[in-house]
Amino acid sequence: GGSASDVFNDVGTAANGDRYVTGYTTSGVFPPVNSQNFYNGSTDCVILKYTADDTLRYATFQGGSQQDIGNTIAINSLNEVFVGGQTFSTDMFGKNVAGATNQFTNGGATSAFKADGFIAKMVSVTGPSDNTLFWRRYFGGSGSESILSIFIDPSNNFYISGYSSSFDCPVIAPFKSTLSSTTAANPSNTDAIFGKFNPALTAQWITYYGGSATTNTGVAQTDWGQDIVVDNSGNVIGCGLTDATDLATTNTTGNTNTFFDNSYAVGNGTDGFFVRYNSNGTAVDFSSYFGGTNTD
Cα dist. 166→108, 144, 192 in Å? Predict the structure, then answer.
């Protein structure tokens, strides 16, 4: 760390034992090692790599002139590194790849209080830095977004979860196609987002998930997709938090022994939720609240 705030939010491990870390720094003197970029001011995303023998191979900045935060990191079987997070910068430029689902500009940049998510891919190279930026895109619309989790399956498809307050979030083949906000003029409510990309970086599906009604007075309604995984059958399982009283819960699994709760525990907090999509994102066979009358 440097002389100001330095925070690590996630760590991932490659099959060969190398470890990767992401987070952020507000320190202009954060100690870079084989860095590919300079500190650009405010808050920069940082990415670090330690080899299996605990050697620090690099500590590099990724960011523009505003606040950029690395929330999640994952490594595929090719030792390619994926980082997701949130950026307020208009100059954390995308790096487009032919055939990928690209987004070069920050859709939320018209307001100082709105941000986009971002997704970046780093590939292996020969040299002291080990990895170089291959692809980076903004993710979002005219509201605010953040990428909170990335998961990679054995076929190197990768999956994202997070949240959006944008009516124009770039959903693709969505199971739920519209934001559950109350009015277009005040899109302060957030929906969870879940999505799948193939190894060629092409989005297969991206969907909203959430409700619109809440008993918590004086606050925006909130649904966040905190994490995402894939089971052995290829089903995509997301989880997060909600204070919506009208989530579209369902249980068509045929399993009567599983825990299932179709009602929000009314109180002054949030419930957890689980949702399970098929691999194509076209069907949900399980969606449930989980929680009590306080915050879960």
Answer: 9, 6, 11
CA distances 106 to 91, 144, 157, 205, 287, Å, are: 8, 10, 25, 20, 32
Q: What is the DSSP string of 6-18?
A: EEEEEEEE-TTS-
Q: What's the half-sphere exposure (Cβ side, CA atoms, 13 Å) at 158?
A: 26
Q: Is the pLDDT of residue 185 over 60?
A: no
What residues form DSSP beta bridges with 40? Answer: none
Question: What sign for the dihedral angle of Cα 27, 31, 32, 38?
Answer: positive
Long-range pairs of 5-11 with CB within 8 A, sequence gap ≥ 24 = 6/30, 6/46, 9/69, 9/70, 9/71, 9/72, 10/70, 10/71, 10/72, 10/73, 11/73
Cα dihedral 107/111/117/123 (nearest 10): 70
Distance CA 274, CA 280 (A): 18
At 1 the pLDDT is 61
Q: What are 26's two structure tokens?
A: 């507000």
Please write the tens of the pLDDT for every residue from 232-291. Answer: 999 999 999 998 888 889 999 888 777 777 777 766 678 899 999 999 999 999 999 888
